[in-house]
Amino acid sequence: MAVTVGMARASANAAELCGDMAQSWALKDRTVLAIADGLGHGKYAAEAAVKAMDYIGKHLDGAPDRLFSGLQRDLRLTRGAAVAVAGSARSNSTYSPCAPATYWCFGQTVWRSG
To answer: DSSP labels for 9-43?
Structure first.
């Protein structure tokens, strides 16, 4: 079964970069979706969101607590971002949702709900 993911985004000021990002990764056994909202707006918000997505994409095989601890360290020198990651496991061409968990990373502090 194919998963289609889409996103629309716009900056607060048309002349600035947007700090909102979403990305999906289709892995052998699951699909992972992530969103990041760089804090503030413009160039520095976009840099934080891009850095978050790059980090997540390189660490998809780790446990969520390790993923977000590393993300916290990686974003420390940026403005920070609010981040959520979700995944679903594939079995017999169907998707089963993972246990609901949302993680938020704001600069140097990580909160977990779910």
So the answer is: ---SSTTSPP-EEEEEEE-SSEEEEEEEEESSSSH
Q: What are the structural domains, with CATH classification, of the chain?
A: 20-113 (3.60.40.10)
Residue 25 Cα distances to 29, 32, 38, 87, 92, angstroms:
11, 5, 20, 9, 19
Predicted TM-score (pTM) of the model is 0.75
8-state DSSP, 97: E
Contact in structure between 39 and 48 (CB atoms under 8 Å): yes
Tens digit of each residue's pLDDT (9 = 90 or more) over 38-91: 988 889 999 999 999 999 999 988 777 788 888 888 998 898 888 888 877 766
